């Protein structure tokens, strides 16, 4: 990205919307490692969280991207025990990538912040990529700010 700030694009399973979430470089690396199956020589933070869950007999049921306030996204990590923990979406996604847990987003949030890419035709996807090259997190701030 021109701003050198990584972005995660969550895609709607049965739709054409994407949810763009700007994240930090460390979290982007953690997510990329999980996507690529890279196993570091020593556990990284998200690997440690996975090991803590396993060691305590918990499983991660799902990650929920719940809301956006002032351009900042919020998430909840839902454990099989019923415990729900507020977390940053980037950390939540990195953990879900390691555990195979599903990632869900509130419909209202997709309506508000999602970006549609119809039919995923190549030219439409290219237009979306061009859009991302020229957009910043500030573009998603509330007009009341």
Characterization of the model:
This protein is an alpha+beta fold and 145 residues long. The protein is 37% helix and 27% strand. The chain has 5 helices and 7 strands, in the order E-E-H-H-E-E-E-H-E-H-E-H. It has helices spanning 25-36, 45-55, 89-99, 107-113, 122-133; strands spanning 7-11, 17-22, 60-69, 72-79, 84-87, 102-105, 115-116. The strands form 2 sheets. It has a 4-stranded mixed sheet with strand order 5-4-3-6. Helix 1 (25-36) runs parallel beside helix 3 (89-99) and helix 2 packs across helix 3 (89-99). The model has no long low-confidence stretch (mean pLDDT 86).
**Strand order within the widest sheet?**
5-4-3-6
Distance between the termini: 25 Å
Largest sheet: 4 strands, mixed
Structural class of the secondary elements? Answer: alpha+beta
Principal-axis shape: globular
Strand content: 25-35%
* Helix proportion range: 25-40%
* Number of distinct helices: 5
| Mean pLDDT rating | 86
Low-confidence stretches: none
Could you spell the SSE succession in H and E letters?
A: EEHHEEEHEHEH
Gyration radius, rounded: 16 Å
Number of E-type strands:
7
Brief description of this entry?
The protein is α+β, with helices and mostly antiparallel strands and about 140 residues long. It contains five helices and seven strands; from the N terminus they run ββααβββαβαβα. The strands form two sheets. A four-stranded mixed β-sheet has the order 5-4-3-6. The chain has a three-stranded antiparallel β-sheet with strand order 1-2-7, with no helix packed on it.
